[in-house]
Structures are given as C-alpha cells and as structure tokens.
Amino acid sequence: MKLPRRTFLHLAAGTATLPAVSHVARAQAYPARPVRIIVGAAAGGTNDIFARLIGQWLSDKLGQPYIVEDRTGAAGNIAAEAVVRAQADGYTLHLASTPDTVNTTLYDKIIGFSYVRDMAPVASIVRTPLVMVVNPSVPVRTVSEFIAYAKANSRTLNMPSAGIGSPPHVAGELFKRMTGVNMQHVPYRGGAPAVADMVGGQMQIMFAVMPDCIEQVRAEKLRALAVTTATPSEALPGIPTVADVLPGYESSHWIGVTAPKNTPIDIVEKLNREINRALVDPTIKARATELGASVLSGSPADFGKIIADETEKWGKVIRAANIKAE
C-alpha cells in the first residue's frame, strides 16, 4: 500500500489561508461542551493512563470535561474508526499510539480507512522504550550473547507479545530481520498475561513495553538485556540499547492525540498548545518518568512526521515478515 505521506504532512502543517478572525473566534469558543477521548486499549493500561492524565489537564484548563472512553477490540481499529467517522469539530479525539501506524499496513484490505489519510495529528505526548527481557533461566546477559544463544537454540525460544502487530511483536520481528535469528512468536491478548508467562518460565524472550515489565525487572524476576530506543532509559540505569549491538535498531511505544481529518486548525493548535503545557507540568512529568516514559512535545507537524515515518517503517517490517492480521 502506497501511503499518501506528502498529503498527510501537509495536513499536519495546517491551513494558513483561512480567515484569521474566524480562527480566533472559533478557538476562543472551543470547547463549549464535553469532549470525548477515545482509547483503543483496556482501562488501566499505559494508553489509558496517559489519556486520563491529559484529559484531566485539559478539563481543568479549558473548562469542559474531557471524557475518556475505552473501546477495545480489533487491535484498536474499532476506536480509531469511531474517530475517523466522527464530526471534525474537535469534540471527538483519539488517543493514538504505535499500533495505529502498524494497522495501516496490517489491516489495509480489511478496514475502510487509513490512519495517515483520515486523521489529523494534534500533539505527541510520550515515548516509552520497550525492554528486551529474558527469563532468568536463559543463560545470557547481553544482546550479543543472546544472538549467539538463539542461533544455537532457535527451536526452544518462544517470544510472546500483546497480540499480532502489537509493539512487542513488530519489535521482535525487526530484531529477527536484522540478526537472522529465529524465535517462535506467541500472541497473547495483552501485555500483562504475556509478561506473567515470561516470569513463570513458559516463555523465554520478550520485547516488552516498559510499564508492563519494569517492576519485574527491578525485582529480578526478568533479566533486562537492553532497551529498544536509540538512547538509554533513565528508568533502567546501566541497561544498554539494542542499537549498541545492532546499529540502526529502534523501536518504541509512543502516544499522542489525533482528531478527524479536517478538524479546524485553530482548534488543533489550541489543543496542541495546552497539551505541550501539560508536558512540562512536574506532576505529569514525574508520572511519565515513573512509568519509564519520556515526554514528547512538539507541533502538530512534528507529530505528523512521527506518524508518517512509523507507518512507513513498520509497513516494511510487516511485508518482509509476511505478518497477517488475525
């Protein structure tokens, strides 16, 4: 599927030709009623936590309730489609994350929309590393040792994930593609049960989203070999990056806010300004750090580039690994 990248980045940059007076008036009036933030993940998870943090901030600062609605199912596509089909007036927002860019390729012949084409980027919020972890029974302590061990023991290595196309899955597939190792993918319905079986020893290797595994790593129930972001994480000091061994390797779970295409740019910019203010608030920054995330401020265009780049990147991995939707 060829992605309309230029069109998307153009939309993200905004439309400067609309009358300035109407822009100001509309922005001042918004919001005049409650706003929904639709989340395609279960309550209590990382996405839900940040949706509620940002929703509460917007409620406090803009004077109307920002109500979080969790709509699970279809790998997040049910929630995304609800926003795509909503009126483009700023009153229905989507809590976007990495799976939305994966789904563009993975479900391109199943869903009737494209995230790149049909959503307007509003603001990025955080980026969270994944952690390459092994059960302590696996006799390795570094990425290099794991690669050697995996090549000698490929039939015995099970790699769980939160589901087909989830960040742990595609991060593992990227690792396989760059190293030539073989690991058997085992999809679960969520990251928590996958991590539980990692701790129990039924699974051996996982690229886990940090909030799902950080307490088990700290308790030495899982052994962290590396983080998947380009730079180390303050939440796990002393743990190197996968890229130290595999230059160019990078994978992360990012979160942001999008809106239906053609949402007025003045409303998008107002939301972007307020979300960026939230990201420098000490309480929100502290909560992000606690979960192993780093705040990710920027313009709508900056977030649009992240979405476009990630869609292209994971599209290549999905096609190369011949990953099929459930």
Structure description:
This protein is of the alpha/beta class and 326 residues long. It folds into 2 domains: 5-128 and 253-321, Bordetella uptake gene, domain 1 (D-Maltodextrin-Binding Protein, domain 2, 3-Layer(aba) Sandwich), CATH 3.40.190.150; 129-244, Periplasmic binding protein-like II (D-Maltodextrin-Binding Protein, domain 2, 3-Layer(aba) Sandwich). The chain is 44% helix and 19% strand. The protein has 13 helices and 10 strands. The chain has helices at 5-13, 20-29, 46-62, 77-84, 98-106, 115-118, 143-152, 167-179, 191-200, 210-218, 265-278, 282-290, 300-321, and strands at 35-39, 66-70, 92-97, 119-134, 158-161, 184-187, 205-209, 223-227, 252-260, 294-295. Strands 1, 2, 3, 4, 7, 8, 9 and 10 form an 8-stranded mixed sheet that branches. A two-stranded parallel ribbon has the order 5-6. Helix 2 (20-29) packs across helix 11 (265-278), helix 5 packs across helix 13 and helix 8 packs across helix 13 (300-321). The protein is globular, with a radius of gyration of 20 Å. The protein starts with a helix and ends in a 5-residue tail after the last helix.
Derived structural class: alpha/beta
Which CATH architecture of the largest domain?
3-Layer(aba) Sandwich
Number of strands: 10
What name goes with the CATH superfamily of the largest domain? Bordetella uptake gene, domain 1
Tally the structural domains. Answer: 2
CATH topology-level name of the largest domain: D-Maltodextrin-Binding Protein, domain 2
**Roughly how much helix do the residues carry, as a percent range?**
40-55%
Could you give a short account of the major beta sheet? 8 strands, mixed
